[in-house]
Amino acid sequence: MTIELRVLSGTRAGTRERFEKPVVTVGRDAMSDLRFDPVTELDVSTRHGELRYADGVWTIHDQGSTNGTFVNGERVDESHALSDGDVVSFGANGPRVEVRGVGDIATSGAAPATALRPSVPVSSGSVSKPRMDTSMRVAVAVEEQTRSLRRNFMIAGGALVAAGVLGFVLWQRQVSAREKELVAMFARAESTMVALQQSVATRRPGDSAYAAALKDTLEARKLDLANARKLIASGAATPENVTELSAKLNRTAVMQQSISAVSKVHELNDAAVAMLASDFDGKFMAGTAFGITRSGLMVTNKHTVQTEAGVPAQRMMVIFANTKKWVRVKLVRVSEDDDLALIQIEDPGTYPVVAGVSRAGATANVGAPVASIGYPGATDTPMEGSGMNITARTTIVPGTVSKRLDDVIQIDSYAGHGSSGSPLFDSAGNVVGVIWGGAKESNGRIVYAVPAQRVSAFIAPEGAGIVR
Questions:
Q1: pLDDT of 270-322, one tens digit each?
Q2: What pLDDT digit, counting tens, does each position of 79-104 carry?
Q3: Sheet containing 57-62: which strands, arranged edge to edge?
Q4: Do 323 and 304 meet the contact criterion of CB atoms below 8 Å apart?
């Protein structure tokens, strides 16, 4: 029941796994047999699928994954029998794996023996030359053959020794270079680890969920560094080790850059972000909204202000950051294509606004640091006061753009109940997206947002706050 899996793409490209068990689990979960990186391989679900062996056949079974399982480009509904050489993709754009060692193996027959022909005596005239006896002729023939073999063997042996010495020297140099590269990574990582530790230690009580996510990331990187040091000590460091560790440390460094930039984002925009409470026939929904005009026009999610059937909330109120006053708002309009809505404060006045809304979100490329400001957990998180009698305090959450499509931005960050409608900012403090949800299986750590170009197009008729 042996099966070999060769990883063709993704962070594990070039690696091979061989299993001799009837069930092989696949996913980002730590207990998976074929495990993919839980941070970078986001097309793979935590428990994506299983390879099963029964009655001489291997099959792939999708376990309700988010992005699906494909065999040779065709999506698997529930299960699919595998043949030698099949390529399985975990997600349409996820890592691809080639299946080897399954199916019947043909046995090649032995080559037919060559028939021996009897020797024919050859005459050389009437007088024959003296003939050596059989033992002497054999000895002479053996000597001639072995002399040639010894000479060729010595030449080949010398070449092999030289090649071996050269190969060993080159291998030693490669190992040394890999070890030096890992040591350099340790040095670069130390400052990042210290800064990340400080970020964990200084989170406000209301940010406990995000602090837990930061702590998990910090502990994971510490473990990665410890394992890499063991590889160096044992001389077992490989190029794959270096590449994998480098990718993880780079992602952590981007996260730390994002954390470092949030103070500017917070200073520019915190006051303009409000908690939203919508009353649906006595059942309240919490969310986040942010101001885009001084007259009180605000952006939030469509699903926070109306039902799936399109019935608007009976009443809605917002409370701005660092204030104690709830003010009534009304629905202006919703987007037909995106989870966006405009609401207007009913009381005349001058209200805070965000620094600006990016026209195209050019800074929100994959790998870029971003930050959201909102109310994950709403009033369930620690506030000054209780119930509706509170002083509103926002939570600012750094993150990294992990995927960007025309209609959605995917962020490695944190969001929870109450985050819907939160503005997503670039390092300059401009809105590059509006958070609307996340992957259920990620516990709030994979977040989705409406991208800037769709947000700016939605608010364009009001001509509000678009900066570029």
A1: 999 999 999 998 888 999 999 999 999 999 999 999 999 999 999 999 999 99
A2: 999 999 999 999 988 999 999 987 54
A3: 34-35, 23-27, 49-54, 57-62, 79-81
A4: no
Q: Is 296 left (phi over 0), alpha (psi -120 to 50) or beta?
A: left
Separation of alpha carbons 7 and 14, rounded Å? 6
pTM of structure: 0.50
Give every CB contact of residue 135 below 8 A, 6+ residues apart in sequence: none
Q: In whole angstroms, what is the distance from residue 416 CA to residue 437 CA?
A: 8
